[in-house]
């Protein structure tokens, strides 16, 4: 039986691993299908303490992993599909295998949220719909793309895409960005980014090859509907 099992290998998971390992609890850290968490897909992290010039997300998570392992934390790849927490002995099931622990720290983080509109799932992954600009941005070099959202994540993705794309249309449901002030100012000052306010994507439209060609957008104030051509969303 393990003293403690930590679920997740993002910032929270590895931080928990470092602290519990230094307390000689010999933690076992289980990483799921995205080792290092969402920060591994972030080109530059500016709000992590100790890095005045910012730090690459993948490098940051790699450093946290090495630091946890240095203190004898163990890391295994395992996707937990069922747990039993009703008794003092905690049981985690990974297919036919099971882990037992005295305590469990859940640090599973977040996952990208899809829009839930027609055409999105059909074109997800290689056909024009993606949730990771850092992963897929280079595939859209010299093309027009759409980013949906108005928070820090959407703004960061839009700014990153300007390195490759001809134009980035940022579609947001409100009439102003809800991102942090510095991020919003960067987006609005970038000539390659065109905001479309008070609007929501209703459908991702495909071309004859089943790849994204445009999005159908509805203005939430006027109820007007139109299409915005694009190669990626």
UniProtKB/TrEMBL annotation:
One Pfam family named in its UniProt record: Pyr_redox_2
InterPro entries found in the cross-reference section: FAD/NAD-bd_sf (IPR036188), FAD/NAD-binding_dom (IPR023753), Ferredoxin-NADP_redctase_2 (IPR050097), Pyr_nucl-diS_OxRdtase_2_AS (IPR008255)
GO MF assignments: oxidoreductase activity, acting on a sulfur group of donors, NAD(P) as acceptor
Protein name: FAD/NAD(P)-binding domain-containing protein
Taxonomic lineage: unclassified sequences, metagenomes, ecological metagenomes
Domain FAD/NAD(P)-binding: 3-230
Gene3D superfamilies: FAD/NAD(P)-binding domain (3.50.50.60)
Keywords attached to this entry: Disulfide bond, FAD, Flavoprotein, Oxidoreductase, Redox-active center
């Amino acid at each position: 039986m393990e003293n403690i099992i930590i679920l997740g290998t993002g910032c929270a998971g590895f931080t928990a691993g470092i602290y519990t390992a230094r307390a000689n609890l010999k933690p076992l850290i289980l990483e799921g299908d995205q080792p290092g968490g969402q920060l591994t897909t972030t080109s530059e992290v500016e709000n992590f303490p100790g890095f005045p010039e910012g730090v690459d997300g993948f490098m940051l998570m790699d450093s946290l992993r090495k630091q946890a392992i240095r203190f004898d934390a163990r890391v295994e790849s395992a996707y937990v599909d069922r747990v039993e927490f009703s008794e003092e002995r905690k049981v985690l099931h990974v297919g036919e295998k099971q882990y037992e622990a005295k305590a469990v720290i859940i640090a599973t983080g977040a996952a990208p949220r899809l829009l839930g509109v027609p055409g999105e799932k059909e074109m997800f992954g290689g056909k024009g719909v993606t949730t990771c600009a850092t992963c897929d941005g280079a595939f859209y070099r010299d093309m027009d793309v759409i980013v949906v959202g108005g928070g820090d994540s959407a703004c960061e993705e839009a700014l990153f895409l300007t390195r490759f794309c001809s134009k980035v249309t940022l579609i947001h449901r409100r009439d102003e960005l809800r991102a942090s002030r510095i991020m919003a100012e960067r987006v609005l000052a970038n000539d390659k980014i065109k905001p479309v306010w008070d609007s929501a994507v209703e459908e991702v439209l495909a071309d004859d090859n089943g790849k994204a060609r445009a999005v159908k957008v509805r203005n939430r104030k006027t109820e007007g509907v139109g299409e915005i051509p694009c190669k990626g969303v």
